[in-house]
UniProtKB/TrEMBL annotation:
Location in or out of the cell: Cytoplasm
Name under which the protein is recorded: Type 4 fimbriae expression regulatory protein pilR
GO CC terms in record: cytoplasm
Keywords: Activator, ATP-binding, Cytoplasm, DNA-binding, Nucleotide-binding, Phosphoprotein, Repressor, Transcription, Transcription regulation, Two-component regulatory system
Transmembrane segments: none
Stored InterPro entries: AAA_lid_NorR (IPR058031), Homeodomain-like_sf (IPR009057), HTH_Fis (IPR002197), P-loop_NTPase (IPR027417), Sigma_54_int (IPR002078)
Keyword Transcription attributed: yes
PANTHER family listed in its UniProt record: DNA-BINDING TRANSCRIPTIONAL REGULATOR NTRC, TRANSCRIPTIONAL REGULATORY PROTEIN
Main subcellular location: cytoplasm
Limits of the Sigma-54 factor interaction domain: 7-106
Organism: Pseudomonas syringae pv. daphniphylli
An annotated Gene Ontology molecular function: sequence-specific DNA binding
One GO BP: phosphorelay signal transduction system
Length: 187
């Protein structure tokens, strides 16, 4: 005899994407109801190339873990190795950094990580300050909107008039760029 047992569970889901989900919803390529279920508490984490200061911290963490895993003494970091990593854009993001560091720990025989231990191209395609066109445009737009909101003391209606756009357009752009209510006040 087959019996069924119902068990209540409390589930939290963490989902990540690099896609613009509101645009995909508008195009009918992502379910709107699913988006609102997933977007209860959004966290925006910029790519590693925009967080250059995190590279050394993460790299040291990954090297410590790799040394523990391989049961060896912790390695030291040469300044040149840190500089080399910080000058690379990491298109593969944190996973790529982790892979680079794990490989370097395996190759390191004298206890000090040096640039030659890392598979960084001699002429990196981009550097950490080199953003894509879309990222540059969004950063410029963000700066303009924040400056205008500051000049208008957070009054969004006045900011929209100053910028020559409708209030609705301004609110849409603020939401798209994730500029929250802390940068404005109710009109």
């Amino acid at each position: 005899m087959l019996k069924f047992l119902c068990i209540k569970v409390d589930v939290r889901i963490i989902a990540a994407t690099h896609r613009d989900l509101p645009t995909l919803i508008a195009e009918g390529r992502f379910r709107e109801d699913l988006y609102y279920r997933l977007a209860q508490f959004p966290i925006e984490l910029p790519p590693l190339r925009q967080r250059v200061g995190d590279i050394e911290i993460l790299a040291r963490h990954f090297s410590d873990k790799a040394c523990q895993h391989s049961q060896r003494d912790p390695v030291q970091w040469s300044r040149a190795a840190v500089t080399a990593l910080s000058g690379y854009a990491f298109p593969g993001n944190v996973r790529q950094l982790k892979g680079f560091v794990e490989r370097a720990v395996l190759l390191c025989e004298d206890g000090e990580l040096k640039p030659e231990h890392f598979p960084i191209p001699a002429n990196p395609i981009s550097n950490p300050t080199c953003l894509s066109l879309r990222e540059r445009i969004e950063q410029f737009e963000r700066d303009v909107l924040l400056e205008c909101l500051r000049d208008c003391n957070g009054n969004r209606s006045r900011a929209a008039r100053t910028l020559g756009v409708s209030r609705r357009t301004l609110l849409y752009r603020l939401a798209h760029l994730k500029i929250g209510a802390a940068h404005g006040r109710p009109d």
